[in-house]
Amino acid sequence: MECAEQTVVVTGGTRGIGRAISLRFAAAGARVTAAYLANEQAAEELEAAAASLPGTITTIKADVSTGAGAIAVIDAAAGPSGHLDVLINNAGIIRDVYLPMMAEEDWETVLRTNVSPLFHCCKWGVRKMLAKRRGAIVNVASISAYAGTPGQTNYAASKGAAISFTKALSREVGPMGIRVNAVAPGLIETEMIAGMKQEIVQSIVKSTALGRLGQAAEVAEAVLFLASDRASYISGQCLIVDGGII
Ligand code: NAI
User: Fold this and answer.
1) Which residues belong to any copy of the Ketoreductase domain (predicted)?
2) 42 lines ligand 1 (CB under 6 A)
3) Quick one: which of 29, 54, 107, 223 has the fewest CB in 10 Å?
4) Structural domain includes residue 205
5) Starting at the edge strand that comes first in sequence, how are the strands of the sheet with 135-140 ordered?
């Protein structure tokens, strides 16, 4: 129950890695607000799945790449107390295509979806953390920022931005008791990679030290660690969770 009574926001929190993060925090006693863009049914199922856990999960439909969406989510999570303990920026998309063929829309949508929520959610989230001078933020990046993957110039640029953003913000808010870290997952078995060609998946599996894909729950464990007091002297870091690729 290391997160008992804590207010936690997880963006993209009803599916894939975000879903695992929401469940992990609820299992640790947190009051989780999970933001999602589509699929009400998945949101309802997640709320029901949390019923047997010590904490709670409340879902909210909002586009966190906009200021209005982010404010709605952060305000809902902070509730009457007005305080937010933990913010997990997990929402993200891929639009893989080689650069010469990449449409401007593929570039802009990936950059907007993966980077703008960092600005909006951190801006409003930090404001809710300032009163108690306490809080933790974890941004979900990707090893794509380090490894460079063909067809992912847009995605790699967005995840590199997430890591640089993490480092800059950690310097700004560290003196106010707020820690900011990132995780960089490798290939994790979620719907995001469901459309990937099998030979690409197999070649990535081969490049891991552990010889397998990662599971969303394994990323969630790393996120919980970074957000918890067990990581009280860690800030501005990006923890790679990739089974040993990098
Ligand atoms: P996913 O596609 O299963 O889930 C992403 C979630 O984000 C969805 O629920 C979607 O509705 C939500 N979302 C997207 N845009 C949103 C917006 N504007 N507002 C609110 N919600 C929004 O993806 P997955 O695999 O769970 O990925 C989660 C994060 O992990 C992403 O940031 C992704 O880039 C990152 N990641 C995933 C890897 C993988 O192999 N699956 C590897 C490395 C990083």
Assistant:
1) 6-186
2) no
3) 54
4) no
5) 56-61, 31-36, 7-11, 86-89, 135-140, 178-185, 238-241
